[in-house]
Structures are given as C-alpha cells and as structure tokens.
Write the structure tokens for this entry.
Amino acid sequence: MGTFHQNKGELHGITVVVDTTGPEIVVGRCDDMDERGIFLHEADVHRDGEGGRSKEEYVRRVAQLGFWKKHDHLMIPREKIASVRRLGEI
Amino acid sequence: MPYSELLVRPMREELTSAGVKELRTPEEVDAFMNEKSGTAMLVVNSVCGCAAGMARPGVRQALEGDRRPDRVASVFAGQDLEATARARSYIPDIPPSSPSVAFFKDGELVYFMPRHRIEGRDANSVARDLTQVFAEHCAVPAS
C-alpha cells in the first residue's frame, strides 16, 4: 500500500545514475524521462576526479550506502545523457 | 508537508501489526537507541509507494522467520519529522534515505538497506535480504 503514480514512466521513483557526455555524473530519484531529458528529485552531481574519485569510484561508493543530495530538483537535457542505470543494480 | 493521517494510518499499522514499535517522538527514539545490548532493527517508513509499498511487506515477511531482532521499531519519514531526524542522528554517516532499514548489534550499525536497494524489487526479495541479516546476527530462538 502506498502512493503510486501510474502516469509516469517505468523509472519513476527509482534512484538512477545518469552519466553525461561531459565530466559530470548525476545520481537522483527519477521523476520522469521524456524527449526533453530526465527529471530528477534529490540529486547529487559528481565531477570526474572531484575529491580524488573518478565517476565509477563515486558510483561504487554511493551504491553501498546512498548519497547526500545537493539539489532538490534537476533536469538533464537528453543531448547530454550518455547512459541511465538503476543505482540498485550496481 | 506531511500527508493526511487518514492516508498514513494504514501504512503505520502495516508495521505495528507485525510487532514493530512505532517511535513518534525524539524521546521514544532515544529510549530505543540507548538500549545497546542485543540486536535491533529500525525501519524508516515512508509514504512513497514505489519503494515503501515493497519495504513494509518485506519487513513483515522477514519478521515471520525463526530468527528476528530482539527489538524492532520504526519512524515515519515525512510524517514524524522530529523523531525521524533524531533517528538519523544516530547514523550520521549514512545519507538520509526513506524507506530504509538499519540493523544494529550491541548498539553498532552492522547493516543498512537504503531506498535504492528496495526500489523495483518485490517484498520476497526484500525479506530474503533481511532474513540473511537476521541469520547472521540474531540468536537462534530457544526451543
């Protein structure tokens, strides 16, 4: 039992890792994804090499225990998205 | 903003009816967390159906097994704000996540299931992970 949102895409409510075509990698809870891009809630952005961690090292770390949000809402334009993965599958 | 209590009550009862003690105030959280001996599980409940809709039945199912924690409690994120904040203060290195499950042994966090390990899974899978934790850390019940 809970609140469900049937009009949203299959990734709605799922925490995803969005790798970009640039140095940033983003983790957040997907609200929806459409032709404009992906819309995230409670997201964190990591830049490759920040804090001495590569993108993949950062992802491995957040996959264990989670991440601290830096943004309440974030939209990543479709042309900047390299890949979208479910954090729970990493 | 908290949801209507009418909406939330069944979500509270889904856990309390399985023997989970709901902690509604910081003082109740302190009392639960300050008892260090043995095993304790703290569930961070949530309204979100995408994950909590699987977390609650998963927790219920796990608690039906032979081994279970000595003490089990929950706080309700987004509803009982002060109690949830106090609960999170006991695991300051863990990013806030709801729903989630924290498991303590002798007062020390030994396992944490964040939201992203619940999303997209079914109750059986959540229960299976928790049952493994119980098997590792909880005493065999006296026959």
